[in-house]
């Protein structure tokens, strides 16, 4: 085993995330939005910091309800920037609000954020990075790669000898379906 699969099992915070969330396909738009915002907030910080603040983020961002976050105004920005339960970074707070609005546009054009992702799959990581840079704000290469890996669109979340790898394989993540058709990442 390598990387996260080696260090996460048994860890108070990483263990449950590794075994129950990381790399698992997600179809719910609010959950996809949550994962994107958590990845954006992780930039420059440890994932452990984000996991410890995850409930704080859920509370502060009204359960990551896209429609609600898209309507946030200055009062909400101020509230978020003063909330010690989250990462108080103006660029990241603004990105959450703006990306909620952009996801709403994708929901109108594609039916859902999940459908938009599916409509563009399969893409290589560099192709995804270009698409995200054009579509969202505060989505650099590392953020995009981790987001897509964490939701089953890019391979690499788990080592092949990790028991979770087999569990995820049964759920037919997008990357595995594309790989079976000959996609090279």
From TrEMBL:
Origin superkingdom: Bacteria
Name of the protein in question: DNA-3-methyladenine glycosylase I
